[in-house]
Description:
This protein is mainly α. The chain folds into two domains: about 5-30 and about 60-240; about 285-425, Fumarate Reductase Iron-sulfur Protein, Chain B, domain 2. The chain is about 60% helix and about 0% strand. The protein is built from 18 helices and no strands. The protein has helices spanning about 5-30, 40-55, 65-80, 85-90, 105-130, 145-180, 190-200, 205-230, 240-245, 260-270, 305-310, 315-320, 325, 335-355, 370-375, 380-385, 390-405, 410-425. Helix 1 packs across helix 14, helix 2 (about 40-55) runs antiparallel to helix 9 and helix 9 (about 240-245) packs antiparallel against helix 11. It starts with a helix and ends in a 17-residue tail after the last helix.
Amino acid sequence: MSLASIVFLLVFAAAAWWFARNVQRIRRNILLGRDVDRTDRPAERWALMAKVALGQSKMVVRPVAGLLHIVVYAGFVIINIEVLEIIIDGIFGTHRVLSFLGGFYNFLIGSFEILAVLTWLGCAIFLARRFILRIKRFWSPEMTAWPRTDAALILTFEILLMSAFLLMNAADHTLQSMGAEHYVVAGAFPMSAYLAQLFNFGSLAPATLIGIERFCWWFHILGILGFLNYLPYSKHFHILLAFPNVWYSKLKPKTEMSEMPRVTGEVKSMLDPSIPPPTPPAEPVNGLPPEHFGAKDVFDLSWKSLMDAYTCTECGRCTSECPANITGKLLSPRKIMMDTRDRLEEVGKVMDAKGKWEDDGKSLFSHISEEELWACTTCNACTQACPVNIDPVEIILDMRRFLVMEESKARQELNAMFTTIENNGAAWAFGPDQRMKWTEE
């Protein structure tokens, strides 16, 4: 085994280990949430995932961004099929080991090149939309320096990866035509052949071309491994979480609010003595806080809500559709998801540092204000707009429940309604004998 192969193996193993470590960390964080069953109606879930995640049906509601995203996503994923060949070549010191596929191999390489050019153009247009056209939803108050930088880094990185791929093929194609040793004649190069002509690769010495090809090869594979390990720190982790997040979507009507099983059980037991009260909650472990009514911190949210937070793409479609935000209210559904993820990361860091959870004096309310929560009309426009079926309303409702049921911080209008329900058995300030008066008008 050559020195280059040994170096490649070490780098690949280190990258795979670091990525697995970060995935395990995120999985642990998500599972800090309370349990919820989202495995019913599996056939419907598979169909929904195929439609929304794979088919990207909700992306193309906005045609320009939707079609560009499909091109970039398909290009990046499909082109990376070639990573399999690169890994084999890197380990065994071969070159284009899959060339035995013949005409099909030529078709694959040619298709990869066309997709690489389309991906390059798509990323360039996305950068222009963000930083030249400055589309409003990308410059909302919650889109601070880091979210904007994160998007720019990913798009720039993809452009560099596609450029390295095409330049590698351009040098390879030229070396093949020169009959250079080790460079087997294989592949079709509809795009890189033009690059070879543009940069006049034919006039370069074989040693120079080999240097260009090897540099681009290493840049491409190291770039992919670096990209993979950047994902857990980026909003682009949705590349991996979008499919499971859609599969575990809420299948009930969006406006149907989830009940609180323990409270429901207590009420049923009070009304019917034959029904036993619900079992007390289990004692918390590893220093985790006790169960709350509603949500004070990330531990009180469902694991699906925490997965939603990690899946958020920060595209801002939810906020751009939110009637509260449109009319100048403080609420931004995107910010709710970003703040939940930020708080979850804070909790994870405490657990990493101390081996278990220790109260840091913060909660979700350290990031999300009461004004934001009460601005929500629960219309679910945000959940309808989200391309990966994220549900900000679930988090908002859980946090409101905590305010009302544990902090007694309901709005004045709600307190008035609670009083009339207690006194009259209805939300209106009329006695039971007058409830049907309206029918006589």
